[in-house]
Amino acid sequence: MANQSTSNPILCASFNQDASCFVIAIGAFTIVEMLFTSSLLAIVGAGEQPSLSPRRLCLFNTMTGTALRELNFLTSILAVRMNKKRLVVILQEKTYVYDINSLAILDTIDTVPNVKGLCAFSPNLDACFVALPASTTRGSVLLYNAMDLHSHCEIDAHRSPLAAMTLSSNGMYIATASEQGTIIRVHLVSEATKSYSFRRGTYPSTIFSLSFGPSMELPDILVATSSSGSVHAFSLGFALCQRGRRSSIILGSIIPEYVSDALDPAHHDVLHNAAPAGVKSHAVVRRVDRVTDSSTSQIVACRATISMVTYNGYFQEYNLTISNRDEYSWSLEREFNLLTVIPENAI
Ligand SMILES: *[C@@H]1O[C@H](CO)[C@@H](O)[C@H](O)[C@H]1NC(C)=O
């Protein structure tokens, strides 16, 4: 709709659970989520017409172009997450957990007022966590196991309220940022301990997105986008790359080394001006490859593919190469205007 659109026509951009696809919502919709590469979409209206109520979740089949089911709530839906077994619907004071096949409601989590609909979800069925704010005055996180349907733990991550969080795809790590936006923390979910603290910057800024690399062992890389318009990349697992295959040792035992690594500003790089300052953006680490030297077959670098949607209507994809001398180089692989490839009012 034209009234919201001139500067930021995109109302929501979300990547699917394995970061292979993304969907954007423009115009009449505020939420759109995809289930892997299936034909199932969860969509929520922006409320400008009664049929597009922000309190109604529509599960939509993109193959047949039909609504499969609708779920109605008493207050606006702020976020939706899915995996092959669960559908999680986040409202301001309640989070509902459903069986995604039968749509039977399995549990209701009463939360502190979650006005931003903050939520992180790990789609992995063996560590299927939902992370929700646990305080409105501090940066505490409630971790809830959506398969077993019980609270797992609470983590006191920051002194000020949370602004962003993400879980690694294996459910083992959670990264958080507070409204200050200067420090990003990574915690090991199983131990609920602080494991890494990164300084993102000196000046406060709003963190819009956090994303781990897709590795099923230790995530290699964490990227953050913020209102400054820059993309920050933190090298988490690079020491692991250097140690090669010896890496599958018990995670707990390698964490202490990372703590000191993590505080080292050299393990961090910034791509400036990736988006105009203040424009919301969402970046994910789509893949990470290890680059080996052909003669010695040693790992000489990690190369990450970072995809980003900016809410002013662009898709960008970068290769970030991190050499084993900790040199970072970014290259823009592709960029296109989403609004010229998508017809108006499409999802
Ligand atoms: C960017 O990364 C992709 C995937 O790893 C690779 O195929 C491509 O060659 C890279 N491009 C450059 C310029 O290195």
UniProtKB/TrEMBL annotation:
Q: What is the lineage of its organism?
A: Eukaryota, Viridiplantae, Streptophyta, Embryophyta, Tracheophyta
The organism of origin for this protein = Trema orientale (Charcoal tree)
Q: What is this protein called?
A: Guanine nucleotide-binding protein, beta subunit
In the record, the note on similarity to other proteins reads: Belongs to the WD repeat PROPPIN family.
Keyword set includes Repeat: yes
Q: Which InterPro entries match?
A: PROPPIN, WD40/YVTN_repeat-like_dom_sf, WD40_repeat_dom_sf
**What keyword terms does UniProt attach to this protein?**
Membrane, Repeat, Transmembrane, Transmembrane helix, WD repeat
| Residue intervals passing through the bilayer | 21-46
Asked if the record carries the keyword Ribonucleoprotein, the reply is no
